[in-house]
């Protein structure tokens, strides 16, 4: 094992397992995904010091619908400057880094790119308001979202930010969706806010009020389920009921939750007959002031963001994850026709009995609910 | 690879990966489960030619509640006689087999045992009514459920059967729950019925009408989500809202669904802060008459039931699976206090916003629903 952190599960397996065991283990872990497509722009990625991986999910040829093949790009990265550098320097450094990664995504023909949760150190553990709230920006006019990448590269950009809502004088954790024309299509706020250990983000912002918006883009109908919302099956489900073909899950997650990471977004793809894209940041972020956590200890960081971004398909197949330790771009070509094909085949929506659940849930939420024991 | 089928994922990893990679890969795949507890009754299992595995999930010591440690047993097995043997012989042979496996479970101190879905060949693919409907029995008075194991071994028995409801002149796919006193506690019918390829079980029985019943036993509150219901997150969720501490998922599943098997029950344990037990049958079942399937082909079997029964805990940890190819008993000791501890820590229920979902779902099920696009 090189260094103290495993680079990725797949690399370990590939180094040690003989064929045909490796093939069978990969099938059990990832399903029968199609072969990698000829990797694009490998040199550019390598020069810029990030990992580039590319996979493809195919669908059956239909008679009446042409294939709807699109390419998504998932970007994971560490913060660029130390967390005590001037705010504007930090922001600019991150913009430069994302800029050079998105350029490579463009070389790979990516149509929809999604970044990790918030363009800033994930400093909510500190409980400090300054300087972190200075990273907040308007969804419609902010620095990050004005980012001209979308138009330049004809790419839908999903940009998760810390949003400052001047009108209501509040902050939100928000994903801004920018169409490939460069216009803001809209925004989707984080629906579920963690209150766990280092992560009581409600010190800064509350549960989102934008519901389960789905964005019609030139490349399909997309939705954004931010971070902690991945633990809530109803959240994925409701995006899907509103028509989402791809649900992005920009996240910031560490430590004990790592064994759950491969499970939840993938389960959502299966249960909802859609694609899901799970994106985590990378690296350990150090904060100058010591802070306390739910474990009774004092910290200057909250551990390794373990990367491992991946895409899951409606048939249960998934890509391997990006590295646990380094910046990376995951390019995935998918034929969106697969969603309906799998839905027609497995019929989880048809057999879902939602009318019964709507009734049961309405009863179950009442304070005087009597469980069926 | 010995033979044409991999015995289990874990065995391959253990044969080829060096420490410390193995330790880290196991953490990523299964989480940090506690060590095996001293295996009981290994000789008895080996004499009777089935695999015996045992694991433990611990919880933190609390000040006001004593630990609530119980042991569950999951039994997976192939059918014993060929499917064209006389029905009564098949039934008796299966009773004998289960009898000798449950005896070993008793030696291991199991408090709650659950068998796989239906005491019969999984013949619904044939579309033949005879002789398969002869396997059906009353939930309250049937042969299987009269099985005296529960009282003999002071064990709660979950016995999934093909139920004949004489009163309504219908068949159901039903789990009978027998208390450790030997009395029938009640029954739970399969809530979601597949209509996929070989598996249109609605030729035989329809969606269950027993809702999301939870059974209070001496060893905790348990529920049974039968087979295809594992694809429906709302189904798990509603058992949990009704108080289930352990949800059993007796199943019969093959082929392309194998990569999904480790995902769905485990996701349900995570999302609902409870234990889940996934049980699949083993082996390939051959039927005399050729039948057609959703793939346009003719068959005499529908492939390998891949076993791999496992238990998942609310903290996202899971046991490795039983073998893919042989009969087995999985014994798991769990401290049920872990459910509330994890719920208090991660708070998915508290942050679930169920009132909003009840409203949204009620709207979404209407035929004239306008999605939020």
Keywords:
EC 3.5.1.6 (chains A, B); beta-ureidopropionase activity (chains A, B); hydrolase (chains A, B); Nitrilase/N-carbamoyl-D-aminoacid amidohydrolase; seven-stranded mixed β-sheet; 373 residues; homodimer; C-N_Hydrolase_sf (chains A, B); Beta-ureidopropionase (chains A, B)
How many strands, what sense, and barrel or not for the largest sheet of chain A?
7 strands, mixed
Strand order of the largest sheet of chain A: 1-18-2-3-4-5-6
Protein structure class of chain A: alpha/beta
Give the SSE order of chain A as H and E letters. HHHEEHEHHEEEEEEEHEHEEEEEEEHH
Oligomer: homodimer
Q: Name the beta content range of chain A.
A: 15-25%
Q: What is the average per-residue confidence, as pLDDT of chain A, rounded to a whole number? A: 92
Under CATH, the homologous superfamily of the largest domain in chain A reads Carbon-nitrogen hydrolase
Low-confidence stretches of chain A: none
Shape of chain A: globular
CATH topology of the largest domain in chain A: Nitrilase/N-carbamoyl-D-aminoacid amidohydrolase
**How helical, in percent, are the residues of chain A?**
25-40%
The CATH architecture assignment of the largest domain in chain A turns out to be 4-Layer Sandwich
**Terminus-to-terminus distance of chain A:** 50 Å
- Helical region count of chain A? 10
CATH class wording of the largest domain in chain A: Alpha Beta
Give the total of domains of chain A: 2
Number of strands of chain A: 18
